[in-house]
Amino acid sequence: MTFDNVSLFPMGSKLSENGTLTVGGCDITNLAQKYGTPLYVYDENTIRTMAKTFVKEFTSRYESTVVAYASKAFLTKAMARIANEEGLSLDVVSGGEISAAISAGFPASRMDFHGNNKTPEELIYAVESGVGTIVVDGFHELNLLNQLASSREIVQGIMLRLSPSVDAHTHGHTTTGILDVKFGFSIESGESTTAIRQALGSTNLDLKGIHFHLGSPIFELEPYSQAIDTVLDYLAPFRSEGLNLREFSPGGGFAIGYMRNQPPPPISAYAEVITSMLIKKCTQLGFDLPKLIIEPGRSIVGRAGVAVYTVGVIKDIPTVRTYVSLDGGMGDNIRPALYGSEYEAVVANKMTVDTGHEIVTLAGKYCESGDILVKDVSLPTLESGDIIAIPSSGAYCLAMSSNYNMNPRPAVVMVKDGTSQIIRRRETYQDLIALDV
Ligand code: LLP
Q1: Ligand 1 site, residue 69, Cβ cutoff 6 A
Q2: 73 alpha carbon – ligand 1 mean position (Å)
Q3: What are the start-end ranges of the E strands in 71-190?
Q4: What's the average pLDDT block by block, 10 residues per block, for the chain (437 residues)?
Q5: Per-residue three-class SS string for 345-383
Q6: Is the N or the C terminus of the chain less surrounded, counting Cβ atoms within 10 Å?
Q7: What is this structure's pTM?
Q8: What are the catalytic residues?
Q9: CB of 217 closer than 6 angstroms to any ligand 1 atom
Q10: Domains defined for the chain, CATH in brackets
Q11: Helix or strand or coil: residue 67?
């Protein structure tokens, strides 16, 4: 049996004979009972299938592609191990991400370290850990990194992050490729020219290639081709100055479905537009084909994750709104409050109830009126104790979670073929004060 918004849930999600939601062969209502709520459930098969899909769709069109999972979307030791087993590289953005991945056995040599203001401590840690590529984002970093590498008598592999002045039409908070952003060396302002020359002249830095990232999530294909076109045209003259473009990265940003009526392009469409433009421009300009590095985060884990909550208080304001309060909220998913992000929701224990639907607003438990997870959603009549499941919750929810109001963060469970395993335990009150001295 299937249900309306099944395409937003992890692959293979179904209805049980009792009319409840199952993910990865596990009944969500049983998981809620066993592990408590709020709970994040990840389906391992979906994560692995997405990883394999990226590898296949890109390498079948462009053999020399490396898929680097953007770990900022969701990182636990279990996730780092899956990325490693799938042969992915890792995009990391902090010493913390490097450390977590190393602790899971992920080789530092397959990490690309991003960030607009990496601290000296983070750079030292990355260099000494053997991080393969540091994606340099500013002049201060360029100088510092050359000194750090020189004093250790090593040559550090780097890419330069450029900002190509291409608008990918994402939310203003997550657009990164335009002129007015904190990220990267701007082509338009001319600072990228200075940066490339300085990098080429830095004896302890090996400039392997060029990176840009336009934003996230990007529902359009055109910005990728436009940016590849612009950046390669711009880079061509630097070959006579010694630029050898061995690696090229158009970043990540591939969209996923949050709402049924806003489907993203398939991975194959992103792959087609990126690889065909790269091949076309390299051929036209006489570049050898560089290694292509793509950095999907959301699109690897977004669909794999389901947030599970229990209904508590129901407040009906006649003719105005019915607030249904859940036991999680903005502490585990800040995206609606921060970006106005929209989600769908289902009642995991009432999946086949098709009478008595009401429009309700799913609110969180945090002390802010803006703590709303889903506004105006049509659901079967709710009672306290019902289990709400919100799909497309695998990326940037837990990753951006907080202990606001001193609420412990949810537990995380990985499901696969009917079995469930806790991969991150629920925080305790003890954890909340563990760092206080
Ligand atoms: N590469 C770079 C350099 C990035 O900055 C990012 C995301 C990615 C790759 C991965 O993008 P993805 O494939 O996941 O779209 N918190 C926001 C998203 C911020 C993305 C930051 N950078 C959200 O919840 O929508």
Answers
A1: no
A2: 7
A3: 89-92, 111-113, 133-136, 156-163, 185-186
A4: 91 97 98 98 98 98 98 98 98 98 98 98 98 98 98 98 92 86 95 98 98 97 97 98 98 98 97 98 98 98 98 97 98 98 98 92 98 97 98 98 98 98 98 98
A5: CEECCCCCCCCCEEEEEEECCCCCCCCEEEEEEEEECCC
A6: C
A7: 0.97
A8: 367
A9: yes
A10: 6-36+304-433 (2.40.37.10), 45-300 (3.20.20.10)
A11: strand
Nearest to 332 by CA among 48, 41, 91: 41
User: Can you tell me the distance from the alpha carbon of 246 to that of 228, in angstroms, rounded to the nearest whole number?
Assistant: 15
For ligand 1, pick from 185, 216, 334, 373 the residue to mutate: most ligand atoms within 8 Å of CB: 216
Tell me how long the chain is.
437
Q: Compute the distance from residue 215 Cα to the ligand 1 centre, in Å.
A: 7
Closest ligand 1 atom number to CA of residue 211: 3
d(CA 82, CA 104): 10
Report how far ligand 1's centroid is from the alpha carbon of 49 (Å): 20
Which structure tokens are listed for 222? 């055109």
- With the CA atoms of 401, 216, 374 and 330 taken in that order, what torsion angle do they form, in degrees rounded to the nearest 10? 20
* Ligand 1 pocket member 251 (CB < 6 A): yes
Question: Is 299 near ligand 1, meaning CB less than 6 Å away?
Answer: yes
